[in-house]
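Researcher: Structure prediction, please.
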Amino acid sequence: MTEFIEIGYTKKAHGVKGELKVVIEDEYLEDFLTAPAVFLELGGGKVPFFLNSIREAGSILAAFENYDSREKATQITGKKMFLRAADVEQKQKPEPVSDLQFAHLKGFKLHDINAGLVGEILDVEEYPQQEMAVIEYKGNSLLIPLHEDLIDQIDKDKKEIHCSLPEGLLEL
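Model: Predicted structure follows.
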């Protein structure tokens, strides 16, 4: 089954030669300009429409094959427009930017100067006082404070963080 992505919609007819004003989401504009066909939602299904021309005149105007008059173009106004997913260039979504100072430590192994390997940092959460590393330790979920005074070393290559944790913290 073909997968479709909604890219915009048709507006009203423009002029007498069958052109339609169309609205295309910015992220799909390049894909629309290079697509051999678009699909309009008609009668509960998606029907292919081949583009004769596309031009800009204050807004985007598109002319479709076999729709060469205002009357014919009016029949397909107000319709959702789609492209096949295969015709859309996959854009890499930007990684969300975190406000957390220590968010990059997620996935690092936490070592204590006395206890040795404590575990992997599963997540970094923000609390009113400071950021906390969430670690699974001896079958329990444990919050470890991430503070400059407790961190001795961060080895990005080995993905390890070495800390001097307060005595008794791991027994809570």
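Model: The first helix runs from residue 29 to 34.
Researcher: Thanks, that helps.
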